[in-house]
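2024-03-11 09:14:02 DEBUG pipeline.ingest accepted 1 chain
2024-03-11 09:14:02 DEBUG pipeline.ingest length=327
2024-03-11 09:14:03 DEBUG pipeline.predict start
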Amino acid sequence: MKLSERGELSLLKRIRERFSICSKEVVAGIGDDSAVVMPDNQYLLLTTDMMVEGIHFNLNFMTPYQLGFKIISVNVSDIYAMGGNPRFILLDIAWGGDTDDGFMEAFFDGVEKAMSMYSVQLIGGDLSSTQSGMAISAALIGYVKKPVLRSGARPGDRIYVTGHLGDAACGLALLKIINRPLPMECGDETDKPLAWRVMHPLISRHLLPEARNPNQYSPRATSMIDISDGLFIDLSRICDESGVGARVCLGQVPISPQMKKAAYALGLDPYALATSGGEDYELLFTAPPQEKFDALCIGEIAPSERVVVYLDKSEKPFSVEGYRHWH
């Protein structure tokens, strides 16, 4: 059945049936003009992310399941970047009238999987029609006892990242060549050809990103941000907010063997993908030098208000590139 036949009220009823609320903190949820939440004595974290067809996703090579999973993950990543715990989500959906039940159910499968992974509950949102393309927006509510801000970095702090960078950007480059949906959430890859086993984790990092839990880092971090737009531009945001600079050793930026192999095959610079590609959703944080972490140190915070990149002890020119709207 198409959405034009089903109608808004029928879809809303289906959503209420599928996403039941079982938290005592929720006084009123889906169905009222506003959701009502009574939190414990903690800071509230509020974030929102929008995904617009043709800008943030392309259904030529993305399944509805992946779209549903990703809209939850990218919002959770923002809450994690503050050291918080995600709790409740509001989901706004604008779909065309020809959207069918199969698409909607697969989308909600992805939403449900991600919500289960991050222990998040859907408590409301909005439904709308659209004449061209579709748009999905989510607002996430989280709690934190002590938020980790971008403004806390101090000279001498070490700079850390929590995992490989550039995989998602390389995966997107591969998807643009393949140009068809790939159900990455299905099946065992061990029996696939070697080339596919190289590509699979890269493409998966773009289509099904997983937010990095901050619990082992945030209590001792002085500043933190998630790498959504690219390492250099997101590090520059920490430096701008903290009034400091940074020295980064390019050779210490973590790059996976699969990404390096695929990047060279595509004629791309793996370090450009790692520093400017974006959508890695790893955490970038700073901490005093005496602290030790299961994370990768890539440099240190400096007093001067600029970011300097070194390669083999020589300063390397760079531009602060990453994803920015209207550029």
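2024-03-11 09:14:41 DEBUG pipeline.report The first strand starts at residue 26 and ends at 28.
2024-03-11 09:14:41 DEBUG pipeline.predict end
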